[in-house]
Description:
By secondary structure, the chain is an all-alpha fold. The protein has a domain at 11-116 and 133-219: Orthogonal Bundle (ABC transporter involved in vitamin B12 uptake, BtuC), CATH 1.10.3470.10. 72% of the residues lie in helices and 0% in strands. It has helices at 2-30, 38-56, 59-83, 88-106, 132-136, 141-159, 161-171, 173-178, 183-209, 221-231, 236-258, 265-283, 287-293. The protein starts with a helix and ends in a 13-residue tail after the last helix. It comes from Variovorax robiniae. InterPro entries: ABC_transp_permease. It is a multi-pass membrane protein. Keywords: Cell membrane, Membrane, Transmembrane, Transmembrane helix.
Amino acid sequence: MDSYALLLGSMLSAGTVLAIAALGLLINEKAGIVNLGAEGLMLCAAIAGFAVTVKTGSSWLGFLAGMAVGGFLSMLFGFLVIWLNTNQYATGLALSLFGVGFSAFAGKDYVQAKLPESLKFSIPGLGDLPVVGPALFQHHPIVYFAVFLTFALIWFLFRTRTGLVLRSVGESPESAHALGYPVRRIRLLAVIAGGALCGLAGAYLSVVYTGLWVENMVAGKGWIALALTTFATWRPARVLLGAYLFGGVTMLGFHLQSVGVDVPSQFLNMMPYVATIVVLALISRNPAFIRVNMPASIGKPFYPGS
């Protein structure tokens, strides 16, 4: 039973990285912007969060640094695609490539660096329960923040006027503009917020999940987070469930090895990406369902004068 509790706990921790990043990208896409630069954002935030934590000894300052870097780079991305109308896909890919190179350069002095000893977290009264305690109630607060963020985003998008405006900008920016809403500023704020969440995911990855810095350590998680938004058909609750699913796929192979099943490491590395391809292929069999849930103006530029 302890091994299954460990697997469940590992699944939640691994899924948290994907969930926070995917929810950030969901905010972007609800406003009509596709950001393919999530991988680069997460890498830059990962080294920023790790470096600040090493220098200050505070993981929370590291999280703030990661969010600041993610938000700043997303602001630059937003300015290019929203005001200068550069191609969203090409600009996102450029941001991703920039993040890979810059993070490797900035992080070369931190490869052997060690973080200060982290505190052990446990919810009083629940963390000591057998099996479910270690599995569910002994995680870092960011794990629980991902769950809170999911429900907060559901409330924001579907229960508030601001969320309705954001969704209207993603559906028909021309109509929103005709009603007097500042479409460009709304999209920019959505992009910055989404980038900050990608930054938090990157900082969590380096500061908590792995506790070290390695070049290109995000290892495709930004792309999986991007695929998750389509997998979840742009619904926050499905994003969270999908993140845990992919987290479980990632950790399952390691669990099999721990119980004596001989699994090649190459197979373990490819499992999350195979799962991504399979899920997207299954979803693509029903394109009408995707079109109903997909923001109508996603990826399309907006020209206020048109």
